[in-house]
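Appendix B.2, paired examples.
Example (i):
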Amino acid sequence: MTDQRKLLERALVQLRETRARLAAAERAAREPIAVLGAGVRLPGDVADLEAYWDLLRDGVDAVTPSVDTLDGHRPKPADRPENGRWAGLLTDVDGFDAAFFGISAAEAAKMDPQQRLALEVAWEAMEDAGLPLETLQRTRTGVFLGVYNSDYLTLQYDEPATINTYTAPGGAHSVLANRLSYLLDLRGPSMAVDTACSSSLMAVHLAVRALRQGDCDIALAGGVNVILNPISTLVTEKVLPMAPGGRCRTFDAAADGIIRAEGCGVLVLTRESLAADRRMGGRVRAVIRGTAANHDGRTNGLTAPNPRAQADLLRSALDDAGVRPEEVTYIEAHGTGTPLGDPIEVEALREVYGGGSLPCALGSVKTNFGHQEAAAGVTGLIKAMLVLEHEQVPPNVHLRRLNPEIDLAGSRLAAPAELTGLAREEHAPLAAVSSFGFGGANAHAILQAPPASPEADGALGKLVLPLSARDPAALVALARAYADRLAGCDAEQAAAVCAAAGTRRTHMAYGLCLTAEDPAELVTRLGEVEGGRGAIPARPPRVAFVFSGQGSQWPGMGAELLRREPVVAAEVAECDAVVRELAGWSVLEQLTDGDRLAETEVAQVAIGALQLGLAALWRSWGVEPSAVTGHSMGEVVAACAAGALTRAQTFDLLLRRARRTEEGAAGGAMASIALPPDRVRALIGSDRVGIGAVNGPRSTVVSGERQAVVALCSQAERLGATVRRLPARYGFHSPMLDGQDELLAAELAHLRPGRGTVPMYSTVTGALIDTEHLNAAHWGRNLRDAVRFSPAVSAIAATGVTVFVEIGPHPVLLRDLGETLEEAGVRYRAVGSLRRGRPAADTLDRSLADLYRAGLEVDWAAVLGEAPAGVPLPAYPWQRRRHWLGEAPQRADLAATVPLAERADTIALFVRRRIADALGLDDVEQVPPDRPLADFNLESLVIVELKGQAESELGVSVPLQALLRVMHGGTALDLATMIAKES
């Protein structure tokens, strides 16, 4: 009995599981599909959705006299057609940004303009969706594109000798979709769809099915149509009635046939359940509730429509959508404008949609453009989407008197001739879209307005704007477009634009990143991007974290940072708990408003806690080190950052080390001498002073008893060397610590370092060190021996690291680091983290901008937060060149066209503004271009930062030594001329 019960229970469990799977499958088979974005290229110079809606709303007739396009040129339309034909034509079909897609000019010349259009419009649809390319590549992304014409391929048949390896893929319909999948590295289904006039809506239908079945998670779906060869129009008019009056007069009594038209439209689709994921862009433009496809069957002719089949199609789509026909309040009809086709279509529409009390408007975009054939369905669908978005129905152009064969009496259907409001009930309004192929293949879709977009989590505030392009000139154009976009924005709106630019755009090879305190400053700085020199090709660089030592601290150094950055606050809180247990005082208090930073113990521990917080912050932003090193006490923190020491070990070591320093080195002195270490060593004649640090090729620090240090400095000055007394009151790394190193090592006998996860370069040895060798004896040497900073940096650079981030409360190593790397011939980028007395944002944001400019992959969501849904951003500025059959490819003029003097004037203004900023001056005129820069007494850190800003924002290489020479003896204009020559 017990066994039978177990069997019965197991059977019931299996039954419930089976029912659950069947229910899930049923839900998946009917799951709505979200439209995340769309791109269009349509007659009437329509290149985006805003322009498309303006054209529809205003009832614009975009039809012009037809022109033959055998040579690819589209002359300005005449008043009357020379060939008697009219058409809805695109303005430009020979231009293409081949370089953006990595296509050679030779191949681009053989590519059907339909392929070129589809590539650009698909990219624009991705941008409208707010989906970076990486998102499409991480998921299974399918491509479904409708295509019908082959004019460009047929143009080549007359000259067989010109056919080459690019001809077949350039003209094959299949490659229209396949090339997009190939170039963007998309792995889902990829297919071209040819059902003639219904091709693009059929492509959408297939994409919906593929998404529901799990064949892909994102789909690019749409279609394209370009008319080039007059022979194809001749072929068309032998099959379809061409309008002698030159317009598609849909629903009108004067309807007399179609005219041909061009266009391209692409949608970005995903399942509604996936659309809620923030990584999908955060906005839904519309929801496709259901679709259906069928065929007319055997009618009285292959191209003759079938009202019964059309009515069946509409019902199938409604059933798939799970909605009642009376809920639909707008129908985008196929609406070709033929005297018999329109009444047949409306008969089926009335039969299915005619009942109910809520008014339902009929429309056809063919009255604006003509019949776009393979692109007609998607153009109509995007129109329907805009109708739902704006809750207005555009006029049917040319509708003067309803076709007497169309009977709308007693139905809720109407064809408006002027802009009208969209009828709606409590629920989001619904629309329907039809598209019929002249071979009998039909498609219908049910579309619904989207739900309200969710609110973005967290407040936005940082004005850090990353921009990138695949071409320097495009980057300049993009900067200008963003300047226009940001003009008049308040701080919140500008922060949203920055966040969207960081998280919802693909980051490319040429980049810049600008920071500002307010939107007006951001607009000004965007206007300063000049001549395409704001960027260089980015290569993923390797990064080193450089932890500075004591002397970089300042009162309140962590106050703003802890308020501004939760990641830092969390790390410092962990450190504070450790320090309270070990030392009995709060490092958190000392970082915010403490008064004990003059004490060695407090200073070193506070610096260490802040450094660990900064390292955690940089890592949270996507900046991961390939190597770490530390100067003096900074080596202890570097060991922790490398994973060799725990927090408890780190602060125990810092506390013990500080106490040994206090006991042995108090009352000493230090100085920096601008000579190589060998020259300084030769000057030392006392055992009370020694070399404390080798910071650069000509930067040697001496340390020891005060009188001995003073005497040594006097010797160096008599030789003409520059000497700088350091404010330290200790003789760090000097003979004063003899014996203290052994005591420290004895205290640390218990220390057992672990195996680090990041390579560590020791400034004790000047080389890579096995972190398991960071034992007690090593830390004794770290206390007493000279800091071999320059050799450690050289060793790191020898491994290919080119980006250095100084981790500390104030940059004290950047100049020495730069001189070391320049001596080694390394092209590098070095930035600080915080700066004494400056807002945290001032240095952190600018440093992050420099790292982005250097090619680092930044986690912009972590930096800037999630942008609100639907933040409009400028589209990519295509750098098109003419590509056509039989023509030599155009070459880009890469030479600098701006005269040196003119560039120098522009750069001089840039230099003067940066100096004014550094000095806290309100007016750039307070820094005259002809005044010696030495008069401004700029500290070396300002000079190093100016070098970084020039390289980051002007895209030039500025040698540090040359910069120092001009700064000491030249003017702003002299400096600008030097930079201009370098560029």
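Example (ii):
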Amino acid sequence: MNHKLLSRHFVHKRSLAFPSWLAGIALAFLALTALHADEPSAANSAGHDYSQLIEQLAQTIRSEMEQKQIPSFSIALVADGKVISSAGFGFQDAEKTIPASGKTVYRVGSISKLLTDVALMQLVEQDELDLDQPVQKVLPEFKIADDEHSKKITLRQLTQHRAGIVRESPVGNYFDPTEPGLKATVASLANTPPVYEPDTRTKYSNAGVSVIGLAVEQAAGSSHPNYVQQHVLEPLGMTHTSFEKNEALAEHTADGWMWGYDRPAFAAPEFLLGTGPAGNLYSSVEDLAQFSLFVMDQHPTKVLRDNSLTEMLQPGVTPDGKPLPYGIGFRVSDFHGHRRVGHGGAVYGFSTQLEILPDENIAVIAASSLDGTNNWITRICNQALEGMLAVQNDQDLTPPVSTEPVPRSRARSLAGVYSSMPGEASRTVTVDWIGDRLLLWKGTFQREIRSRSDTGELVLDDRFGFGTSIRQDQSFLVIDDKTYTRLSDAPPPEIQDEWRDLIGEYGWDHNTLYILERHGQLHALIEWFYYYPLDEVAEDRFAFPDHGLYHGEELIFRRDDSGEVTEVIAAQVAFQKREVGTKAGETFKIKRELPVDKLHELADSAKPPREEGNFRPSELTELTTLDPSIELDIRYATTNNFMDTVFYQQPRAFAQRPAAEAAVKVHQELKKQNLGLLIHDAYRPWRVTKMFWDATPSKMKNFVANPAQGSRHNRGCALDLTLFDRTTQEVIPMVSGYDEFSPRSFPLYPGGTQRERYYRGLLRRAMETAGFQVYEFEWWHFDFDGWQKYRIGNLSFEETAN
């Protein structure tokens, strides 16, 4: 798949109204329009009736969008020389007032490259450019750090990603929000070393296609966006397509959404990339359907000669005659014995696939307004292509497969760390569960395991795709017929000291690079989804693995005069180190919105919300009376808390009896591992929740309860806690400190060390097994099942004890 163009931010002024797939927020139902044909007769075309397929696809899309929580989705089917169907599902705007349609405009990312390459081929036809002459013939200023290498690079190599240059330019790269322009972007390549010798290895490069765009400008005497608009888009009738943002498209453009493994969706940034020819295109599936007709030579307007188009769709060959994955821009592959051409696109908040079977004259174009969903979209596209082939061959449609969550009892039995069998290259995979989700960390991605609704077979099914089978065999895990054996559940060793200050976050809010440790090896989590193990080359210098987005490139950590790490240069892009949370042992503090006296005044004059209905009588029970070995560190009875204020007169912990007894059970079970529970907070009077809310800045309110609804702490059904070592009485270090208002507090925050995440997961599993659920933003906060059955309380500890 092509480069994923993307980003996100932990806190944003606009938050998504549909739920996070990990958060357990109440579902805001997506209104889905039915898949429909452009014209009444389009579904029944040239003697082929596609209506059953169209209805099947609509049912699949509705179900999948709800499961994967996709905000909007559009799809167009092309067959028999026309668009046979075009539709939208969900809503294109955050307020959910405008239904998505076939005309909804999406940012289509790397599909941009195909339009740039069509423009290139037009100028080749006019003898303004030559695919096989060095780029410097048309762009004398083009260079990289190795002059001899620069002189060898041709336009053909750039179109086929065989030029051996970096993936991203130092300026104007995918991460750079400054919109520097094409010339500055290409000029910044001058100091980048070659990754490979030209034509020796395929190395996908957005920077390379930007060089093509600048060559188009030079040869045409016009800006790249203007040239493509006048000579490609307008002739093909692509009226809702442009390389530039404009008011005409704005009203049709979908809002894009980002997400991460550990956090809900948030609004995507909207800046244009410096590598514009490679990724700045806006378009609709209906316009891209017109483009697909051109590719299949079925459009009434020809913008290229037949031989030029044929050359674009044929895979290139290596110097020794082996086929390449790319033609001129187009990715070329096999689809069940049929030649498939097209491209995917992924840019901040959007995912798009253009899939064409040119020899069968069928195509499907689909787009979503959620980042990182290209493989999911490909699954929908494959169902459409298979269906159109079946219709044309008078065959039955294959029923789609649906899945459901793995039952918790089965999920628990799968949880653990596994390694490949002896004699194979060592590879470690981890299986863990949280709520009703069973997660697999394997290779590059974190995946979700679900159960097939028809057979009960375990498969990977999430936004990244579907189909890999998972089977448990005693202490073995079998993943697509490869066997892994369960390892000991002992705590991982401490991280190497020399790596400790490298771990952290780097870069921007919209696109954060994480450096973390996994299973004894430093890893980079880049572009939100891609885990890459790093090989240490020298002190503060590491290499990306020989696969993925950045193969052949390195990370170099930079330090200031005092030795503090300040940035990492990753694949020629500078990522500044970010300040996140607090240093180990320090207590997180906020700047209060109001003075303490005013907070007390407001809380004393307010009353808890009125609640109607039948509730259980309160049975608040002091935890240490059930088991005195439970440790307490009640921060709100001291000034050692996020507000520097004493809220409780006594350091005591109460909970409703069923919750208290469940916690004691966990504490006693943990004794087998020489661990125990340390309680930071339990029952909390409502007036304290009111003070927390009024004091906390709005951007941090995810970490405090809204007094208008009351807190589960107020009901005596929530515990804030951590683990301690029974021998040393020391608190076990976690990824973040208690009450740290930062993303490091998220239960699935990916950073830190393997040991820190191990203990965080151990605590969560122990509590969830006993009937508690972790809060989506705080690894230490657990709500007891049935908390709704108890009223909000406002008694002080002294009144409670009496």
